[in-house]
Amino acid sequence: MHCCTDHDTWSAVADPEPVRKIWRALGLPGIVDVHTHFMPRQVMDKVWRYFDSAGPLIGRPWPITYRADEQRRLQALRDFGVLRFDSLVYPHKPDMAAWLNQWARSFADATPDCLATATFFPEPDAGRYVADAIQTGTRIFKAHIQVGQYDPTDALLDPVWGAIAEAGVPVVLHAGSGPTPGRFTGPDPVRALLRKFPRLALIIAHMGMPEYSEFLDICAAHDNVRLDTTMAFTAFIDETMPYPASELPRVRDLGHRILFGSDFPNIPYPYGEALTALTRIDGIDDEWLRKVLHDNAVALFGATDPTAAADQGVK
């Protein structure tokens, strides 16, 4: 289950040139991907089994393109020219987040190009382990409202959001109702959360799909809210949740608040399609692409090593 992509298929989907060609043409040293998943092996295997079963939270067949062992996946990202990425972990039940955070901390310590990542769940000790994560250098959090099935304004999370807001650590928040709605998904819980904690630095995953317009509103109204492009604009998503053409002018105007994300390795197409889809957005120019693929993330997380793509990946 863990590593079953055959050699020829892997060679095709891990070919770095289609990706590198795009960022080279923009004069970039590489790209930053704020939405990637690395997890303990047993957790990743369970996630992949869920995708394989097209479970209720998925809602459609969803083949995993980059099903391979951890080192192979890391090398693929580096070969693509990804200078910095993260290990977005997330719990679906209590008494899981602290353990995931310990694993993610160790992973980041062993993987210098990975932003130290952590997560949380509404439970009595959440405030403690989130404070510990911040103290030990967490650079980004992941919150998955759909999978966790919790209200982000749950009182148990008040100390969590308060500490995160005070520290200014960004949170990749899956709050949109795609691919299938959850009990607490959608823009209204996020609006309520921001009323309580207006300083939160949120990165709304998947451009907020399918509530694209509402999450554009939220982003425009809050200086610390950003959007990530994860899976949006691709042919796979356009089949069921296409981005409204009427909102593309706002997407262009908010280019300074949008970050590139891929959902690697859990994507049903080659990595390069995520970048190609962005280049095909009507009216998008090179400046917008440079901001989204690299500059905005550097402004948020700090400078990347421009030699990293060459040193750790292909020459």
Automatic annotation (TrEMBL):
Source organism superkingdom: Bacteria
Matching PANTHER family: 2-AMINO-3-CARBOXYLMUCONATE-6-SEMIALDEHYDE DECARBOXYLASE, ISO-OROTATE DECARBOXYLASE (EUROFUNG)
Alphabetized InterPro entries for the sequence: ACMSD, Amidohydro-rel, Metal_Hydrolase
A cellular component annotation (GO) from this entry: cytoplasm
GO biological process: secondary metabolic process
SUPFAM superfamilies xref list: Metallo-dependent hydrolases
Name listed for the protein in its UniProt record: Amidohydrolase
Domain called Amidohydrolase-related: residue spans: 32-302
Pfam family, one: Amidohydro_2
GO molecular function: carboxy-lyase activity; hydrolase activity
Keyword presence, Hydrolase: yes
Entry keywords, A to Z: Hydrolase, Lyase
